[in-house]
Amino acid sequence: MLRLHPHPQLEKLREALLELHKTLVDSERVGYEAALGPIPSPNHFLRLLSSDPWFAWLLPLSGLIVTIDEALDRRIPLSPNEAQGLLTKTRRLLVASEEGHGFPRSYFEALQRDPDVIFAHSRVVLLLR
Questions:
Q1: Among 12, 22, 71, 99, which is least packed, fewest CB within 10 Å?
Q2: At what angle do helices 80-93 and 59-73 cross, to 10 degrees?
Q3: pLDDT for residue 35
Q4: pLDDT surpassing 70 at residue 46
Q5: What is the helix (H) or strand (E) element at residue 59, kind and residue range?
Q6: Is 1 inside a domain boundary?
Q7: What are residue 24's phi and psi, to 5 degrees?
């Protein structure tokens, strides 16, 4: 079913975040397999994504995408303030930091090692302007 939204920027942002998420997952998989060996099956990889500490840092981004999906699928359209809140939440999450730990640190490391992550990040940033 075709979804028409009063917030096309949010829909475009969702698509760009999905692309960024996939790029990060692919990048992390390469690192995981280089360090620990091949992942034997798609089912095993899915279990790793949901429960292995190697991939746990991606959960805030996964959660943000789910939050945006739920907001866009509501029967009652988002108010401009709610849409702006999701844009702000995205801006706050996608801050890479060489210091500290968790998402900001791992995101910084992914941006340093993988040009594909830089390109996907840039597409999201352009939509947030």
A1: 99
A2: 170
A3: 97
A4: yes
A5: helix 59-73
A6: no
A7: -65, -40
